[in-house]
Amino acid sequence: MNDDKLHPRRTEDNERAFFGRRKGHKLRQHQADLVDNLLPHLALDIESEAPANVVEIFDPAAGDLRLEIGFGGGEHLAAEAQLFPATGFIGCEPYVNGMAKILAQIEAGNIGNIRLFAGDAAELLAWLPQASLSRIDLIHPDPWPKRRHWKRRFVQDKSIAAMARVLKAGGEFRFVCDIDDYCAWTLSHLARSPDFQWLAERADDFRLPWVGYTMTRYGRKAAREGRKAAYLRFRRL
């Protein structure tokens, strides 16, 4: 497997700006084969200009388009794609092992409505056309708990503005996290954005998963260890 193929837009500047792990455990042979042979058919080429109607990256064109940032093991992304076959899904994940896992699920389930980007979500958001997405999910992101690392968290004023640009009016940003500090951070950042409205009306609206939510392995692990997740939904105004 050629790692440069997996991350074709890597430059010194974006390498300094990106903080996620790119490699983990060595891939099994079949996983490596999927990365080499299946991923090129599903990977977005953001070197090329995005189509004006970005749902046309799917064949047939999708009726709607959603994005999951940092999909980890891919459980939630694969489940959503199977539940909503007329919707197109983009999964963004720079971690090679996570990419191999979603490819295995795509192959096993013959899932045709997922496209993938193995890189920095900021670059993908900049490439997507304005008002092209109906929803963005960020589920159990790395919390970067040390104060000196907070600048590495995905949720920042700049990324919120980037998400607002690509979300349709009425679209949603959904955030799941079991780290209280990062939940508070996210609420405070979204509250000062003029583009989003928090949808919670009662405590259970953020204490309980939304209807149809697929729990991830990390979510189950957090629950076993006594950490309660918050499920935050924000509407694009």
TrEMBL record:
Superkingdom, natural source: Bacteria
Pathway recorded for this protein: tRNA modification; N(7)-methylguanine-tRNA biosynthesis
Enzyme class: transferase
EC number: 2.1.1.33
Molecular function via GO: tRNA (guanine(46)-N7)-methyltransferase activity
UniProt-annotated binding residues for substrate: 146, 178
Classification via InterPro entries: SAM-dependent_MTases_sf, tRNA_(Gua-N-7)_MeTrfase_Trmb, tRNA_methyltr_TrmB_bact
Residues that coordinate or bind S-adenosyl-L-methionine: 68, 93, 120, 142
Annotated GO CC locations: tRNA methyltransferase complex
Catalysed conversion reaction: guanosine(46) in tRNA + S-adenosyl-L-methionine = N(7)-methylguanosine(46) in tRNA + S-adenosyl-L-homocysteine
Family: Belongs to the class I-like SAM-binding methyltransferase superfamily. TrmB family.
PANTHER family for the chain: 3-DEOXY-D-MANNO-OCTULOSONIC-ACID TRANSFERASE/TRNA GUANINE-N 7 - -METHYLTRANSFERASE (PTHR23417), PENTACOTRIPEPTIDE-REPEAT REGION OF PRORP DOMAIN-CONTAINING PROTEIN (PTHR23417:SF14)
Protein name: tRNA (guanine-N(7)-)-methyltransferase
Organism: Bradyrhizobium neotropicale
